[in-house]
Amino acid sequence: MRYELLVGLRYTRAKRRNHFISFISLTSMAGIALGVAALIVVLSVMNGFQQELRSRILAVVSHVQLTGPGNRMEDWRRVAEGAARNPRVQAAAPFVNAQGMLTYGQGVRGVVVRGVLPDQEDRVADIGRQMRSGKLAALKAGEFGIVLGGELARALGALPGDKLALIAPQGQVTPAGVIPRVKQFTVVGTFEIGMYEYDSSLALVHLEDAQRLYQLGGAVSGVRLKLDDLFASRAVARELMASLAPDVIASDWTRSHANFFRAVEIEKRVMFIILTLIVAVAAFNIVSTLVMLVTDKQADIAILRTLGAAPGSILQIFVVQGVMIGVIGTLIGVVSGVLLGWNVDTVVPAIENALGFKFLAKDVYYISDLPSDVQLRDVLTIGLVSLGMSLVATIYPSWRAARVNPAEALRYE
Predict the structure, then answer these.
(1) Element (H, E) at 188
(2) What stretches of 148-257 show up as alpha helix (H) in DSSP?
(3) How does 9-35 read in b/e, with b if 16+ C-beta sit within 10 Å?
(4) 3-state class of 295 per DSSP?
(5) How far apart are CA 302 and CA 130, in angstroms?
(6) Are residues 133 and 235 in the same domain?
(7) Are residue 205 and residue 290 in the same domain, yes or no?
(8) 357-411: pLDDT as tens digits
(9) Which of 208, 224, 256 is the last residue of a domain?
(10) Which of 106, 128, 187, 385 is such that its CA lies 20 to 30 A from the CA of 224?
């Protein structure tokens, strides 16, 4: 072992005469550990929210959506077959997307009506797994069944088995004027995605029933696709735009809901910067620790210099001591943060029970639990940033130690 490392480790372990220096060292170590742990937990929770948000959106939205001009596609089977030639496309399903108005008793709500084929819809989206009552397969052609979002059903006061009136905005011209088309539908189920946008305004009907109501004939609004990799959706959408007919428009889920993920990503970056300041404050406490230590150890430094130690060796001794504080603090913080990140779903309910209130009340937030996703990349980044700050904090006091004049230091010894 090089003597610079040996002496540096000995200074770290030794009991110092000045207990104040030891206190500041422990405070710096604890601050680094706390900052690193907080960074890991916060970023893990934000990763969990991002993953939860993505899974809830993709329960309703397909990876890639192909639409025709004017929201109308005549030969959708040809388009679906052409899209299926792409090796990344796993499934395709047609859909009709239209506006309507639901009435039940005294309740009236504007809705987005989506016509689907239940067996094919389950292959491109997970809405069938989010059913709270009934099944998506209960939608059968000619029976005019309807599946409502949970919030929409509650707003109307409708239950499975109730009959609703669906009013299409496209009216029929008669001698008495324009009369809107009205059709009675029977509620066959409800779903709960956990996003107010869909739960309060989306209604599903069978594709053929939607075509009859909106007088589309054999046409649909477009085709929804599922890919083997959801993160390749943007590239696949560009490839399909180039290979399919020029009037086919391809859009992916990252574009249609970019605002959600952009907001989460910006918040994640801002939180990283803010919490990194905690680590920076703790790391730069190492400066005051080493400055006081250099002052306290001037005689030892002078003796080492007279024994032949080079200024660079003295600098390395104090760098080792400062880095040791950073390494120990970082390791404690990483272990604590990872363990807490893995057990957020257990720790948070325990704190809520102890304090007597919920952080995310179910009647206010749709995500009532704190999801967590500890990612190795985040842990490594945080650890390296903490160690880098600790190393930078040792440079100035170590440089001062290397410039100590042996004669001046030993004059009054």
Answers:
(1) strand 177-191
(2) 150-156, 196-199, 207-213, 233-243, 253-256
(3) eebeeeeeeeeebeebbeebbebbbbb
(4) helix
(5) 74
(6) yes
(7) no
(8) 776 665 556 566 678 888 898 899 989 988 888 888 888 888 877 777 766 656 6
(9) 256
(10) 187
Distance CA(215)–CA(208), nearest Å, equals 10
Phi and psi based region of residue 19 (left: phi greater than 0; alpha: psi -120 to 50; beta: remaining): alpha
In this prediction the pTM is 0.70
Query: Do 90 and 153 sit in the same domain of this protein?
Result: yes
Give 84-112 pLDDT, tens digit per residue: 888 888 889 999 999 899 998 888 898 99
Q: Which single residue is written with the structure tokens 């990876």?
A: 63
Q: Which of 202, 225, 256 is the last residue of a domain?
A: 256
Instruction: Say if residue 147 is in the same domain as residue 109.
Output: yes
Helices (H) and strands (E) in the chain, counts: 15, 10
344-356 per-position pLDDT tens digit: 878 877 877 787 7
Cα distance between residue 373 and residue 53, in whole Å: 13
Q: Give the strand pairing for 222-227 and 163-174.
A: unpaired
Distance separating alpha carbons of residues 81 and 243, to the nearest angstrom: 12
Tell me which residue has tokens 């639901």.
Answer: 102
Asked if residue 228 and residue 120 are part of one domain, the reply reads yes
